[in-house]
Design goal:
GO molecular function, one term: ATP binding
CATH class of the largest domain: Alpha Beta
Keywords: ATP-binding, Biotin, Ligase, Nucleotide-binding
Organism: Acidisoma cellulosilyticum
Number of domains: 3
Mean pLDDT: 95
Number of strands: 24
CATH topology of the largest domain: D-amino Acid Aminotransferase, Chain A, domain 1
Strand content: 25-35%
Protein name: Acetyl-CoA carboxylase biotin carboxylase subunit
CATH architecture of the largest domain: 2-Layer Sandwich
EC number: 6.4.1.2
Shape: globular
Largest sheet: 5 strands, parallel
């Protein structure tokens, strides 16, 4: 691999470029009109404009990205996360063009990206799954009430395609099921091109714990321990850490072994993440889905293992044997990641675009900051609100939390509204300090996390 095109933007594009340069691989950035002077563009060796600001006209245009790779002589493409990262058609088009796709095979993306088929693969590999219905085709509502009763309430209506929080609806009682399925199917058809859905049992006292896996593509796979990602808003993560503060060593071992077995069973290639829900009352864990890409929170795993996951992806993609890098892995200390976002927590975490008039990033031992912005940049409304990932590694969880508090306290960002103060309140909450980080954390502790402003009174 001599030259890599990075089919993404923002902090992940910058981070992939850093890994490529460390291996002596030249980099090509692609950019929309809105990103012409972005950090991921100026830090690459070459850059190609691929269209207007809206992703549907630039970062999601397969033909434009492949043409950019061919025009610059790139021989490989890394998709990052989001955009086309879990699009089997894109991976297939890359390989059909004679280029290396840095990631799993198109068939693996297609199989594990369909949540129904992924559940079947998990069951076949002996991984526990939650009670669920069969596939519900768009508009096919016959037997829906009976299916809901069999799964049990509360339940989640989930799209078989796509990912993230927008592909789910929580339903507490039977009379709300039909409207929720109709709304979810309509949204999924627009967002993912597939309105098929299914029902799955909802675990109220839940932890969201995921296992990082890496497959060599020949039936061999390893796990790189777990990350807890329970603290979320709108089903989307904002704080991740490892080890999980809420599972036993026995559960950790069983969950990691189950994830490794599933990755091996499907002959998985490259980095991937297998997500589980853990019932905090019983300790039982259940398969949720697999993300066939590098995760936003992968630095947490890198900090505790010392493995550069993106470099491992690149090495494997160019034919190297990565088994020596991944053998005998151990986890050291505790790592926490906070997502610094351009959003207003007091307004339901709505994005808050604008110009960054001042940005000062702290430096400290055990601190890593991955970002795609600089002072003077304008945050547009066209893309995800993530500005930077703050990652702290320390000997233990209390020390990691203290290091994160210090890092966020020393970070200065002006000109736009961010979630920095909200993150500081969250980290200082006694329940977070005690590791009581269930998926309903924000709603449960809303009064403390959203205190009245001066002159206001609480409801």
């Amino acid at each position: 691999m001599r030259k890599l095109l990075i089919a993404n933007r923002g902090e992940i594009a910058v981070r992939i470029g850093r890994a490529a340069r460390a291996l002596g691989i030249a980099t090509v950035a692609v950019h929309s009109e809105a990103d012409a002077t972005a950090l991921h563009v100026t830090s690459a060796d070459e850059a190609v404009a691929i269209g207007p600001a809206r992703p549907a006209q630039s970062y999601l245009v397969v033909e434009a990205i492949i043409a950019a790779a061919q025009a610059t002589g790139a021989d490989a493409i890394h998709p990052g996360y989001g955009f086309l990262a879990e699009n089997a058609g894109f991976a297939q088009a890359v390989e059909a063009a004679g280029l290396i796709f840095v990631g799993p095979t198109p068939a693996q993306i297609a199989m594990m990206g369909d949540k129904g088929r992924a559940r079947e693969a998990a069951e076949a590999a002996g991984v526990p799954v939650l009670p669920a219905s069969g596939r519900i085709a768009p508009g096919a509502f016959d037997g829906l009430a009976e299916a809901g009763a069999r799964v049990g309430f509360p339940l989640l209506v989930k799209a078989v395609a796509g990912g993230g929080g927008i592909g789910m609806r929580l339903v507490a009682k039977s009379e709300d099921l039909l409207p929720a399925v109709e709304a979810l199917q309509s949204m999924a058809a627009r967002a993912f091109g597939d309105g098929t859905a299914y029902l799955e049992r909802y675990v109220a006292a839940a932890r969201h714990v995921e296992v990082q896996v890496f497959g060599l593509g020949d039936g061999r796979a390893v796990h790189l321990f777990e990350r807890e990602c329970s603290v979320q808003r709108r089903f989307q993560k904002i704080v991740e850490e490892s080890p999980s503060p809420g599972i036993t060593p026995e559960t950790r071992a069983a969950m990691c072994q189950a994830a490794q077995a599933l990755a091996a069973a499907v002959g998985y290639r490259s980095a991937g993440t297998i997500e589980f829900v853990v019932d905090d009352e019983t300790g039982a864990f259940y398969f949720l889905e697999m993300n066939t890409r590098i995760q936003v929170e992968h630095p947490v795993t890198e900090m505790i293992t010392g493995v550069d996951l993106v470099q491992a992806q690149l090495r494997l993609a160019q034919g190297e044997d990565c088994s020596a890098v991944l053998d005998g892995l151990t986890a050291q200390g505790h790592a926490i990641e906070c997502r610094l976002c351009a959003e207003n927590p007091e307004r339901m975490f709505l994005p808050s675009p604008g110009k960054i008039t001042r940005l000062v990033l702290p430096e400290a031992a055990g601190l890593r900051i991955d970002t795609g912005v600089r002072e003077g940049d304008t945050v547009t409304p066209f893309y995800d609100s993530l500005l930077a990932k703050i990652i702290v590694h320390a000997a233990d969880r209390p020390s990691a939390i203290a290091g994160m508090q210090a890092a966020l306290g020393a970070l200065t960002i002006e000109g736009i509204i961010t979630n920095r103060e909200f993150l500081l309140r969250l980290l200082a909450h006694p329940a977070f300090m005690a590791g009581q980080t269930l998926t309903g954390f924000i709603d449960t502790h809303r009064a403390a996390l959203f205190p009245p402003k001066t002159g206001e009174t609480s409801a």
